[in-house]
């Protein structure tokens, strides 16, 4: 099983948009880039065009190919497919991790995510998110409320109980 993006960390963003990528994330990015070799820089994709998501979403090359394959299974000329293609392909950028473990965030991506001096990296398993500290705090509060509504201490048991015999990735 491949490594996954886990954890959260805050990193400084300099005036040129350079920000350190967490070391554990860099390992996942390298493993998920079929063209990566020791001594080269892993390439990955940052999506910035998903409606209602004031953050960036990062995918390995392999992870992005999985999303592209899902889009390819949709009817070619459907309105939904065109909208998803726009969000995933047009509103995304290929980036690389440099020799110092940093990525350079173009001004447009910093603007979309409201990034100024700091960026919060949040591992989400098959992808990661990059948030402004304020946006991340608000998102965390929303998720805590969701878990509280699902049963507080018993939330995980309550949520997972309906998934026991369902294949991974299948919605209810």
Structure description:
37% of the residues lie in helices and 21% in strands. It contains six helices and eight strands. The strands form two sheets. A six-stranded antiparallel β-sheet has the order 1-7-8-4-3-5. Strands 2-6 form a two-stranded antiparallel ribbon. Strand 3 and strand 4 (56-60) form a beta hairpin. The chain starts with 7 loop residues before the first strand and ends in a 12-residue tail after the last helix. The model has no long low-confidence stretch (mean pLDDT 91).
Computed CA radius of gyration, to the nearest angstrom: 17 Å
Task: Give the topology string: H per helix, E per strand.
Answer: EEHEEHHEEHEEHH
How far is it from the N-terminal to the C-terminal residue, by CA? 25 Å
What is the number of helices? 6
> Which blocks of ≥5 consecutive residues have pLDDT under 50?
none
Mean pLDDT level: 91
Tertiary shape: globular
Strand content: 15-25%
Strand order of the largest sheet: 1-7-8-4-3-5
The secondary-structure class comes to: alpha+beta
The helical percent reads 25-40%
The tally of beta strands, per DSSP, is: 8
Largest sheet: 6 strands, antiparallel
């Amino acid at each position: 099983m491949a490594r996954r993006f886990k954890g959260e960390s805050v990193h400084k963003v300099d005036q040129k948009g350079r920000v350190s990528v967490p070391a554990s994330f860099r390992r996942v990015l390298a493993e998920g880039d079929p063209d990566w070799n020791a001594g080269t820089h892993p390439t990955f994709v940052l999506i910035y065009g998903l409606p209602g998501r004031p953050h960036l979403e990062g995918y390995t090359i392999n992870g992005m190919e999985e999303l592209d394959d899902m889009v390819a299974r949709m009817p070619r000329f459907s309105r939904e497919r065109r909208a998803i293609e726009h969000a995933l392909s047009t509103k995304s950028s290929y980036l690389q991790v440099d020799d110092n473990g940093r990525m350079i965030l173009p001004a447009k991506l910093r603007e979309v995510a409201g990034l100024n001096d700091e960026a919060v990296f949040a591992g989400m398993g098959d992808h990661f998110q990059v948030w402004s500290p304020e946006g991340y705090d608000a998102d965390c509060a929303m998720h805590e409320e969701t878990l509280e509504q699902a049963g507080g201490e018993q939330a995980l048991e309550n949520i997972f109980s309906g998934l026991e015999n369902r294949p991974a990735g299948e919605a209810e």
